[in-house]
TrEMBL record:
The keyword Repeat applies. The keyword Repeat applies. This is Uncharacterized protein. InterPro entries: WD40/YVTN_repeat-like_dom_sf, WD40_PAC1, WD40_repeat_CS, WD40_repeat_dom_sf, WD40_rpt. Keywords: Repeat, WD repeat. PROSITE patterns: WD_REPEATS_1, WD_REPEATS_2, WD_REPEATS_REGION.
């Protein structure tokens, strides 16, 4: 009958008329709809067995499962302060995708349960104890965005309370999910005063600094962190993960930072040299014409020259114009490393042919040879003033040369392993050499190893390292199969070998091709660049310098 049809249609959307209900009675309805309005902003609908929440007419997609508490098991009901606590005590599987059938209720019962829960939540001034945080927080955020003043007040209070708790993963989450955007700069500044910084874990802060760089209020927070932990930051340079760029393929990934610290040049598989913006990763220009992948690369400290090598061939380029100046021929095998002297007067090259050659940059000719190792040369490093050159080779030796006289000053022998990379301190008092599993410090007064840092963990490799410009710290990349999420950037103190911190590298690790094999540090010590064979380049920036630069940038925009 007509009355029966109307009764069955009860609860449908109000705009559907009684006539429509009667006319459609004989047909199978396309949608089974129930509708409930909580207030002017929130409504719920049951559509095809699914409970949906709407805010100002737009679907709000969030967790919609009912939490059921078994009263027979509940011996401490009065001790439960919120739905979140109840979940933790009785229903830890709430996050799983369960269905009403699995809960033993109908779709309609689930729908009305949600309506009741959200209605009670609203009528009690959006009390967050009455609704699970997985839905109450996002819903409060959405209501704040659409202009619900009551929700805005509660949202600010709840966000502030959780942030002031000092639990850093939650603080990062509030940044990342943009919950803190509801606060004005003045409100956020007041909130910072409520945090007990003595309870914050500094190591956890260092790990998560990268996660809050670019969010609202992040600069205020980072400045406060630097002030609260000023003793640590003043004594230890902290490099934060600034960005990751996916570029073209580079088999040997030679990489160098320009003298103005604004760009980096990378050798590619197509034989080209490509210059990228260090902040954005945007390609600035392309030059060079090697016929095979570029193996080695260096930039003179004054920014005049760029040198690159492919097989035994070395080419020198004018940095400003990108024009080819010289082709240097003399090696009989692959050139593995290139080094301009600090004054930009000459270029030094090392090769698999065991030879080290010094090239005159005025004439583009071979100036002299510094002698040779018994096996292929792996690494070169000049002293700060250019008086000394250090070389390492596959024969497990490290040679210290006087660049003015070409005299071999001393030979250091590591009987255990060959030194893959070498660096000399700024005061010429020690040398740091690395293998895949160790860092070793050689004292140049005694010519002995005075310190050995062993990489912890089986399967971890030390692929590359740099010395800070004051030579007080070593920064190295650790990667390998145990580090499936990308690896670590670790920093050790050179005076005693102490590990200061280990920061995760946020990089999808899929094997050897994506390991960062070359690190380069900028002349001002602010940037570290890491290059991998499979297109990836990572950029780290000094934390305190980043804060200063960001402050200056924002002031310029005022």
């Amino acid at each position: 009958t007509y009355d029966e049809a109307v009764a069955l249609q009860e609860g449908f959307e109000e705009e559907r008329s009684k006539v429509e209900a009667f006319e459609e009675w004989d047909d199978e309805p396309e949608e089974d709809i129930r509708y409930f309005e909580v207030n002017e902003h929130i409504s719920l609908r049951l559509i095809q067995g699914k409970t949906l929440i709407f805010v100002n007419g737009q679907q709000f997609d969030q967790c919609r499962y009912v939490l059921l508490v078994d009263p027979l098991r509940n011996k401490n009901q009065r001790e439960i302060g919120s739905i979140d606590e109840a979940q933790a005590m009785y229903n830890n599987d709430l996050e799983e995708k369960i269905t009403p059938e699995q809960l033993g209720i109908s779709f309609e019962q689930e729908f009305w349960a949600h309506c009741s829960n959200i209605q009670a939540w609203y009528e009690n001034n959006y009390d967050t104890r009455l609704l699970h945080s997985n839905i109450s927080f996002p819903l409060l955020k959405k209501l704040t965005q659409v202009g619900d003043l009551k929700a805005m007040k509660v949202f600010k209070e709840e966000v502030g309370k959780r942030f002031a708790s000092g639990y850093f993963p939650v603080m990062v989450y509030l940044f990342r999910e943009e919950y803190l955007d509801c606060l004005t700069p003045e409100e956020f500044s007041t909130l910072l005063n409520e945090i007990d910084y003595s309870k914050l874990d500094l190591s956890e802060i260092l790990v998560h600094l990268k996660d809050i760089l670019f969010w609202e209020h992040s600069l205020q927070f980072l400045m406060r962190i630097s002030n609260e932990f000023t003793d640590f930051f003043s004594k230890n340079p902290v490099f934060i993960d600034y960005g990751e760029f996916v570029l073209d393929r580079s088999e040997f990934c030679p990489i160098a930072i320009t003298s103005d610290n604004r760009y980096f040049i990378r050798g590619s598989n197509d034989g080209k040299l490509k210059e990228f913006d260090i902040f954005t990763g945007i390609l600035r220009r392309v030059f060079g014409d090697h016929e095979k992948p570029v193996f080695a690369l260096d930039i003179s400290s004054d920014g005049t020259y760029v040198s690159s090598a492919c097989d035994s061939e070395i080419k020198v380029w004018d940095y400003t114009s990108g024009d080819h100046i010289y082709t240097l021929a003399g090696h009989r095998d692959i050139v593995t490393c290139l080094q301009f002297d600090p004054q930009g007067r000459y270029l030094v090259s090392g090769s698999i042919d065991c030879e080290i050659i010094v090239w005159d940059l005025d004439s583009g000719t071979r100036k002299k040879s510094l002698g040779s190792h018994m096996d292929g040369v792996l690494s070169l490093s000049h002293s700060r003033q250019g008086k000394y050159l250090v070389s390492s080779a596959c024969d497990t030796t490290i040679n210290l040369w006087d660049t003015e006289t070409s005299h071999l000053i001393t030979t250091l022998v590591d009987h255990d392993e060959c030194t893959l990379q070498i660096a000399i301190s700024c005061l010429n008092d020690f040398i740091i050499g690395s293998s895949h599993s160790t860092l070793k410090k050689w004292d140049l007064e005694t010519n002995k190893i005075v310190q050995t840092i062993r990489i912890q963990g089986e399967g971890y490799d030390l692929n590359s390292f740099v010395l800070t410009h004051d030579s007080k710290f070593i920064l190295g990349v650790l990667q390998g199969q145990p580090l499936e999420k990308g690896g670590n950037l670790s920093m050790w103190r050179t005076s005693d070998g102490k590990l200061i911190y280990t920061l995760p590298i946020n990089q999808a690790f899929k094997g050897k091709l994506q390991e960062i094999t070359n690190l380069s540090i900028s002349q001002n010590g602010v940037f570290i660049i890491g290059g991998a064979r499979d297109k990836i380049v990572k950029v780290w920036v000094d934390f305190l310098t980043y804060i200063e630069a960001e402050q200056a940038f924002r002031k310029s925009k005022e």
